[in-house]
């Protein structure tokens, strides 16, 4: 109750502070337009922002260990978050500066217009792709290698139950967690990428076919897609995974293949909708008419005439679709029916290490394990979304 | 008014038709399971007699079309059949008293819990996202707008379990304000129940607020270029009044639409969140049944999720027709 009271008192203080700021500003600057026309809400916002900033700085410089020798976990996590935020901002800035000076004229121009969030997204995507491709060289151990030391704590400090050989520790059966985290990039991201490509191939082809041929094929495909889209996608995926797990039996890898197919089909319905809508706008153009009169075949029409004119919306959709597929796969794995062990995968890692979060007050590093795997998933989707957001903003003609 | 009723009836009929087709899809999908349910229940060492008994007991000896209409007929009357897990257990122990928990009995309390969670989330998320959206439209392109934009984009694209564990870390482990496990049972007082539901509700709020807030902002900003907004501005109205009095009522249709769509998402998106918080809702039951392949429960949950999803999409559709005069009086 006293916490609530303190919060209310602080808010009242900020409210008074906002009024004082505006009044003082008007008096000090002799009614400068900035202060004269300032709505109260803006003044309130400034004071609130300043208070939050001051509190953050104060909290950041709190000691990480209390007098009793217990780690002050809240401060530790806060410091990590702030350091990560500042470092990523600097990295994005440097990357953008690099892109502005190195490269062709086109890429330089692209980087000049880029906001910081988008360059951060591009950087993240490049880093993930690099990790996924070179996982075998980057990881210190194999993803299925089992060591004698089990349940090694992260940190690499022998005094606190760690081991310098395993910087992030090992799991219950002795597999190196750092290696599994790195291989997770290959498996989770790779499988999501393959699935998205498959969904685009399927949905795109059928969508363009429906748009070009129209008639009964369009009707049948559209109604089928309507029905499939009426079932929530995660629920439908879970239902089909039940059946797939019965089909796969004890063949674990077969289940992963089924999962790719199932999610590709479910997501291709969304791609179909977009491809058909975009295609319908293109097939009424004169150049399609001309190509038809020239006697071009269906394949030429779809791949040489429609596809090049539909790349921009499809590319943005590819980014968004990849995020959805990636999150669906991660969620399925988290629920225990997705990518199967012994393949290393982030969703499964989160589920396996989730209970460590309860030790946050004693060992922040251990508690960070599930957040590290979940954060790896979040970081990529956030990065892709930043890039897509910027692309959509650019193609929408920069509205007000 | 006549035409409005006709449109609504048309949509309702279309929704029912969709639900019917969806039920066929679900039934066919489940019937693609290899082998025999009865064999699967009893395992490898079952005698043919026992398998036959179970088959007759569960009605598996009928042809698929008969079974489909039997299932659909009883599902419409609220009877969703018996859970395989229960049947299996009873016959295994040999104490089959004939009294079994039906799927409906299993689902009903959990469905109520899930609806409670969705309601609490909606109560927090809708006002917050509307206010944030209006503020972001009011102070567009300011620091505040950019900060909310980046924050909402981050929360919209993070997996639910990431948000859930971050909230658990800060609100349950480091500062024990709220319980991290939602063990809800019968006869709990409303306050207690609310306290246990708050953390999953907050997680879901983070997920859906972003979308609703961005749509509100976009819908309002789209209108700001209209001549009547220009007029209101020239009259000397304050920006806040321009947005709340003039832009908001006209932006209501897309906003209501996105709110209904997000509520539909809430019903289905609860699965992961319920598993993280061990919340006794229908999503958790669904995942558990998927793992042990309890077909009647999976079928029933799927049907309920699809029905809720279709219903809310239908509501969004009808609401947007009702709030738009041009659609209300089609030429």
TrEMBL record, chain A:
Subcellular location(s) of the protein: Cell membrane
Record keywords, A-Z: Cell membrane, Membrane, Transmembrane, Transmembrane helix, Transport
InterPro entries: BP-dependent_transpt_permease, MetI-like, MetI-like_sf
Membrane topology category: Multi-pass membrane protein
Gene3D superfamilies named in the record: MetI-like (1.10.3720.10)
GO cellular component: plasma membrane
PROSITE patterns: ABC_TM1
Predominant subcellular localization, coarse grouping: membrane
Entries under CDD domains matching the protein: TM_PBP2
Domain ABC transmembrane type-1: 185-383
Pfam families, per the entry: BPD_transp_1
Biological process terms in GO annotation: transmembrane transport
Transmembrane parts of this sequence: 6-25, 37-61, 73-95, 116-139, 189-213, 225-247, 253-272, 318-339, 359-388
Top-level taxon of origin: Bacteria
Similarity comment: Belongs to the binding-protein-dependent transport system permease family.
PANTHER family in the cross-refs: OLIGOPEPTIDE TRANSPORT SYSTEM PERMEASE PROTEIN APPC, PEPTIDE ABC TRANSPORTER PERMEASE PROTEIN
Protein's UniProt name: ABC transporter permease
The organism of origin for this protein: Marivita cryptomonadis
UniProtKB/TrEMBL annotation, chain B:
A cellular-component GO term for this protein: plasma membrane
Biological process, per Gene Ontology: transmembrane transport
Name recorded for this polypeptide: ABC transporter permease
Membrane topology term: Multi-pass membrane protein
Family, similarity comment: Belongs to the binding-protein-dependent transport system permease family.
SUPFAM superfamilies noted in UniProt: MetI-like (SSF161098)
Source lineage: Bacteria, Pseudomonadati, Pseudomonadota, Alphaproteobacteria, Rhodobacterales
UniProt keyword list: Cell membrane, Membrane, Transmembrane, Transmembrane helix, Transport
InterPro entries associated with the record: BPD_transp_1_N, MetI-like, MetI-like_sf
Record has Isomerase as a keyword: no
Domain ABC transmembrane type-1: residue ranges: 111-316
Residues passing through the membrane, by range: 12-33, 115-139, 160-178, 198-229, 250-277, 297-322
Localization per Swiss-Prot or TrEMBL: Cell membrane
């Amino acid at each position: 109750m006293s916490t609530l009271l303190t919060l209310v008192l602080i808010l009242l203080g900020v409210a008074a502070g906002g009024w004082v700021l505006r009044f003082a500003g008007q008096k000090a600057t002799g009614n400068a337009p900035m202060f004269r026309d300032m709505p109260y809400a803006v003044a309130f916002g400034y004071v609130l922002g300043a208070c939050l900033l001051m509190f953050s700085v104060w909290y950041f410089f709190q000691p990480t260990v209390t007098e009793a020798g217990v780690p002050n976990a809240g401060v530790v996590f806060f410091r990590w978050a702030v350091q990560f935020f500042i470092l990523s901002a600097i990295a994005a800035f440097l990357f953008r500066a690099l892109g502005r000076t190195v490269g062709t004229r086109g890429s330089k121009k692209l980087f000049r217009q880029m906001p910081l969030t988008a360059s951060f997204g591009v950087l993240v995507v490049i880093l993930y792709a690099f990790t996924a491709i070179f996982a075998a060289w980057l990881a210190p151990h194999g993803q299925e290698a089992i060591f004698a030391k089990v349940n090694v704590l992260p940190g690499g400090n022998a005094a606190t139950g760690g081991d310098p050989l395993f910087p992030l520790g090992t799991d219950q059966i002795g597999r190196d967690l750092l290696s599994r985290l790195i291989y997770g990039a290959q498996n989770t991201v790779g499988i999501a990428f393959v699935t998205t490509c498959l969904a685009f191939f399927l949905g795109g082809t059928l969508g363009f076919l429906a748009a070009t041929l129209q008639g009964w094929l369009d009707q049948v495909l559209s109604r089928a897609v309507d029905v499939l889209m009426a079932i929530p996608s995660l629920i439908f995926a879970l239902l089909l995974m039940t059946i797939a797990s019965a089909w796969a039996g004890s063949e674990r890898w077969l289940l992963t293949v089924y999962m790719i197919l199932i999610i590709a089909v479910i997501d291709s319905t969304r791609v179909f909708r977009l491809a058909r809508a975009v295609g319908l706008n293109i097939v009424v153009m004169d150049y399609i008419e001309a190509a038809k009169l020239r006697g071009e075949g269906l394949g030429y029409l779809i791949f040489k005439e429609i596809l090049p004119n539909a790349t921009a919306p499809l590319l943005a959709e590819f980014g968004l679709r990849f995020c959805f597929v990636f999150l669906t796969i991660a969620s399925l794995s988290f629920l225990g029916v997705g990518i199967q062990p012994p393949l290393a995968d982030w969703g499964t890692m989160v589920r396996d290490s989730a209970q460590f979060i309860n030790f946050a007050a004693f060992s922040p590093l251990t508690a960070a394990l599930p957040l590290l795997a979940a954060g790896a998933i979040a970081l990529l989707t956030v990065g892709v979304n930043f890039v897509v957001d910027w692309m959509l903003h650019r193609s929408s003609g920069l509205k007000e | 008014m006549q035409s409005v009723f006709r449109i609504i009836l048309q949509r309702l009929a279309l929704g029912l038709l969709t639900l019917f087709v969806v039920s066929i899809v679900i039934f066919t999908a489940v019937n693609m399971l290899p082998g025999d349910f009865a064999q699967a229940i009893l395992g490898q060492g079952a005698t043919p007699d026992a398998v036959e008994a179970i088959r007759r007991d569960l009605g598996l000896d009928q042809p698929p079309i008969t079974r489909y209409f039997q299932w659909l007929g009883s599902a419409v009357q609220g009877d969703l059949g018996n859970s395989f897990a229960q049947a299996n257990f009873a016959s295994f122990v040999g104490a089959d008293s004939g009294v079994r928990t039906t799927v409906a009995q299993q689902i009903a309390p959990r469905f109520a819990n899930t609806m409670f969670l969705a309601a609490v989330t909606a109560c927090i998320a809708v006002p917050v996202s509307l206010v944030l959206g209006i503020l972001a439209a009011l102070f567009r392109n300011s620091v505040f707008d950019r900060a909310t934009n980046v924050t909402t984009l981050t929360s919209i694209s993070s997996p639910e379990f990431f948000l859930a564990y971050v909230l658990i870390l800060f609100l349950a482990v480091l500062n024990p304000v709220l319980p991290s496990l939602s063990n809800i049972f019968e006869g709990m007082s409303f306050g207690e129940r609310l306290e246990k539901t708050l953390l999953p509700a907050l997680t879901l709020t983070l997920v859906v607020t972003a979308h609703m807030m961005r749509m509100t902002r976009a819908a309002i900003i789209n209108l700001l270029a209209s001549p009547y907004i220009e007029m209101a501005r020239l009259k000397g109205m304050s920006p806040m009044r321009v947005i709340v009095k003039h832009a908001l009522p006209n932006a209501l249709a897309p906003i209501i639409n996105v709110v209904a769509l997000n509520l539909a998402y809430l019903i289905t998106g609860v699965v992961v969140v319920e598993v993280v918080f061990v919340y006794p809702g229908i999503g958790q039951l669904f995942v558990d049944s998927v793992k042990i392949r309890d077909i009647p429960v999976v079928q029933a949950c799927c049907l309920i999720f699809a029905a809720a999803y279709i219903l809310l999409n239908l509501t969004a559709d009808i609401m947007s027709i009702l709030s738009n005069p041009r659609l209300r009086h089609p030429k």
